[in-house]
């Protein structure tokens, strides 16, 4: 089994970029302005994870087809 160069750390790199783009702020009395960056960050991570899982499922299917052939 071979991996595309740099693919091993791709997930960590994307999550680190999301963290950088959406820095956390300490909530102060549950002020929406302080909590929103946390929600944006979580939504971005979840969206990326969903896309990454779909990619992995597609990759597994293509590898299974190669094994069967």
UniProtKB/TrEMBL annotation:
Protein name: Uncharacterized protein
Organism encoding this protein: Microbacterium enclense
């Amino acid at each position: 089994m071979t991996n595309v160069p740099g693919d091993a750390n791709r997930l960590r790199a994307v999550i680190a970029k999301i963290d950088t783009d959406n820095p956390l702020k300490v909530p102060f009395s549950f002020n929406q302005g302080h909590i929103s960056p946390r929600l944006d960050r979580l939504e971005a991570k979840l969206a990326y994870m969903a896309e990454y899982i779909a990619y992995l499922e597609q990759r597994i299917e293509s590898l299974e087809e190669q094994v069967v052939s």
